[in-house]
């Protein structure tokens, strides 16, 4: 016997607040630490220049133009490295949200959907098992409003973890905007190439996307709660 009267409060009071906490921590605490990297890079450039000018001059040493170029290159490299880390962390936030969803679903599966004799059998700890058991109880999660966005997030998470492959092809078809890197012309063709999204390359998750995924996850748990009641899951 399933217990929506127990699980609906857990969805609302545990699962959804955890999702929103991830969103808040990444967008309001982590990302703002990168807001001053342009100033930081400029300060680095000035420091390197002053340090270079304080060194003794030699006839066979670099001239001021060469020093200025080297200093500028170092500052730009510093800036781009930090921008890559900022993008990589935004990508990781999407990855984090999807795996949190999976862990919540496995918790629900193990504690509620599986028979007590199956709860310690790891072969049942799969997304499709939860989906099939719910479908047997007349709850089709693939019909939820949130489902397409969750599928997009699944492909995104796999792409961020594994790079180019089947999921990246699905993602390119479903959400090509995630391959449009900041600063590049929208008229440029998208290659779908994915090498190092954890370093902020090839995949461009934006703060607005994080909020969209958090909204979809919240909607999923609300829809599941409603479905447990509407489809008379309780025997």
UniProtKB/TrEMBL annotation:
The name this protein goes by in its record: Uncharacterized protein
Protein origin, superkingdom: Bacteria
């Amino acid at each position: 016997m399933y217990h929506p009267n127990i699980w609906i409060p857990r969805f609302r009071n545990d699962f959804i607040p955890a999702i929103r906490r991830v969103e808040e921590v990444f967008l309001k605490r982590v990302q703002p630490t990168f807001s001053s990297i342009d100033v930081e890079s400029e300060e680095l450039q000035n420091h390197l220049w002053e340090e270079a000018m304080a060194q003794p001059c030699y006839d066979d040493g670099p001239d001021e133009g060469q020093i200025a170029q080297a200093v500028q290159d170092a500052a730009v490299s510093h800036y781009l490295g930090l921008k890559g880390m900022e993008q990589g962390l935004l990508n990781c936030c999407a990855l984090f949200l999807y795996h949190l969803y999976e862990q919540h679903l496995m918790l629900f599966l193990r504690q509620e959907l599986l028979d007590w004799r199956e709860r310690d059998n790891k072969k049942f700890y799969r997304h499709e098992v939860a989906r099939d058991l719910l479908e047997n109880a007349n709850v089709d999660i693939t019909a939820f409003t949130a489902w397409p966005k969750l599928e997009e997030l699944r492909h995104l998470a796999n792409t961020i973890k594994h790079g180019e492959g089947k999921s990246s092809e699905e993602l390119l078809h479903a959400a090509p905007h995630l391959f449009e890197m900041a600063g590049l012309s929208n008229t440029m063709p998208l290659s779908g190439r994915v090498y190092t999204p954890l370093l902020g390359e090839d995949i461009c998750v934006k703060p607005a996307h994080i909020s969209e995924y958090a909204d979809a996850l919240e909607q999923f748990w609300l829809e599941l709660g409603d479905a447990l009641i509407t489809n008379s899951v309780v025997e």
